[in-house]
Amino acid sequence: MNASETITNSFEEMKRKVDEINKLKKTLDTMTLDSRPDVQIIHQQLVNLNREILYATQDKELKEKLFNDATIHLKNLMKTQENLTQHLELITKAHKENKEKTLQTLMKKLNSN
């Protein structure tokens, strides 16, 4: 083998190694996570889940506000009921006392005749 053939063989070997390295580099460049179908599915599921979490959080906040408003309204109604009940008790007591007084007056008049 002469020097020219040795150089040619070395050059061919070097060219083959460069081609092999370029092929491996190209393969490596295409090996991204975004190109994997399973990763794309998980990304889409996370997008959907995040949207659902946002809607659920907004729904929860709205329902908490409605619950708090309803609780305040209920307390107001119960306070009004308590006030009206107390007022009715006062009216009933005064009426009973007035009726008793009128009955006693009537009894005195009946007994005086």
Key structural traits:
mainly alpha, rod-shaped, 113 residues, 92% helix, 2 helices
List the helices and strands in order.
Answer: HH
Number of strands: 0
Structural class: mainly alpha
Unreliable stretches (pLDDT < 50, length at least 5) are none
What would you call the shape?
rod-shaped
Percent range for β-strand residues? under 5%
Count of DSSP H/I helices: 2
Averaged pLDDT: 93
Q: Return the domain count.
A: 1
Largest sheet: none
The percentage helix is over 70%
CA gyration radius, whole angstroms: 48 Å
Give the end-to-end Cα distance, rounded to a whole number of Å: 163 Å
Q: How would you describe the overall organization of this protein?
A:
This protein has 113 residues and is mainly α. It has one domain. The chain contains two helices and no strands. The chain has helices at 3-30, 37-112.
In short:
This protein has about 110 residues and is mainly alpha-helical.
